Amino acid sequence: MAAVIALAACNKEQSAEQPGTVAKQTPLEAELKNKEGQSVGRLRVSEDPNGVMLRVTVSGLSPGTHGMHVHAVGRCDVPGFLTAGPHWNPIDAQHGRDNPRGAHLGDLANIEVGPDGRAESAFQIAAARLEAGNQPMLDIDGASLVIHARPDDYRTDPDGASGARIACAVIAG
Q1: 3-171 adopts what CATH topology?
Q2: Diameter of the chain by CA atoms?
Q3: Rounded mean pLDDT of 32-43?
Q4: How do the domains of the chain map onto residue ranges?
Q5: Residue 22: pLDDT band with limits 50, 70, 90
């Protein structure tokens, strides 16, 4: 099932520049939508002194384990969300927490979706920043949050063998 997560600022107003683009304030809130535009979850992105926190609540995804990553480009064009680009990797590492040369900053833990299609998870990207620093997540082309069809094996470069992109959120200022 393909889905698109469109981010909107807390006041639910979207930027006039591009649908799904958010103001540069936190927390950012998003509605997770399927390809028919139906709501299938929520995303909340915030920043604190420890890094960037992503909180995701989904319903309507296929049960099982799914890889989840921050991708380098703030685009989520269907089909396939390939415009989201590769994983966010400003430190030029390889993929995965179990890879001796890993991990990308965009590597997150898998999300476990229950038999009812629901899941809740929180992911912190330590020392990451949305806009500040030398390698901000929200650079000139933004970033995306992507959920994949299969689990991330935490070691295979470049994507953890996590398969097709089934959901995508544009994170851009």
Answers
A1: Immunoglobulin-like (2.60.40)
A2: 44
A3: 67
A4: 3-171
A5: very low
DSSP-derived secondary structure for the chain:
--EEEEEE-TT-PPPSSSTT---S-SSEEEEEEETTS-EEEEEEEEEETTEEEEEEEEESSPSEEE-EEEESSS--PTTTTGGG-SB--TT--BS-TTSTTB--TTB---EEE-TTSEEEEEEEEET--SSSSSS-SS-TT-EEEEEESS---SSSTTTTT--SEEEEEEE--
Q: Tell me, what amino acid is at 3? A: A
Closest by alpha carbon to 52, among 26, 32, 76, 75?
26
- Mean pLDDT (whole number) for 8-34: 47
Nearest CA to 168 out of 24, 66, 98, 65 is that of 66
> How much is the pLDDT for 1?
37
Beta-bridge mates of residue 147: 68, 167
Give the global pTM: 0.81
